[in-house]
Specification:
By secondary structure, the chain is of the alpha+beta class. About 40% of the residues lie in helices and about 25% in strands. It is built from seven helices and seven strands. β6 and β7 form a beta hairpin.
């Protein structure tokens, strides 16, 4: 996942050409057809895909993200929590926010974010879902993936009782991990 995200960040226009443009033909209205998998009824259809392609082609490359053990542990905590509870969203069963979970294993500074994907177990599909960000008017998942200020990443994938799979990704501008 880190590698895939860094491919996107290193050359957004090329990534759009290689991985997003070919998916245009998989849309039938708002239905996104996935051979061998369950089709997905999207909120916006191909319009959201076209918007993401257009934006990626205009974006400049940004520096790659550096994996962080502490951010990964924070992501794993939330993935395990949601696997147990079946919940969705950014608040943990203990009421914790993404920022609080990140601070359990280190100290973040400036800015952080959390992306969560549900229902996909293929890395490119997770990135595709987050880049297109169908139904999300803020396009926050895309912005987080391409945020130049973010330098560190942590992630965890796991089962989800309702959606089958989930992937939790943490981003931070600065992150100092706790010493063991």
């Amino acid at each position: 996942m880190v590698f895939e995200g860094n491919k996107l960040r290193s050359d957004p226009g090329r990534y759009a050409d290689l991985y997003l443009v070919p998916k245009r033909g998989k849309y039938s209205g708002k239905l996104y057809r996935r051979p061998g998998q369950v089709d997905i009824m999207t909120a916006e259809g191909v319009r959201a895909l076209d918007e993401s392609i257009s934006q990626l082609k205009r974006l400049k490359p940004v520096k790659p993200l550096i994996p962080s053990r502490g951010l990964t542990r924070a992501a794993k905590d939330h993935a395990v929590d949601q696997a147990e509870t079946g919940s969705v969203g950014h608040i943990g069963k203990d009421g914790s926010s993404a920022e609080v979970r990140m601070n359990r294993y280190g100290k973040w500074e400036k800015m952080v974010a959390e992306n969560i994907s549900y229902g996909h177990d293929h890395i490119q599909e997770i990135v595709f879902q987050m880049v297109v960000d169908d139904g999300m008017s803020s396009r926050g998942h895309r912005r987080n993936l391409m945020q130049p200020a973010f330098r560190f990443i942590g992630l965890a994938m796991g089962p989800h009782p309702k959606y089958g799979y989930l992937c939790v990704i943490k981003f931070a501008c600065e992150y100092r991990e706790n010493q063991p």
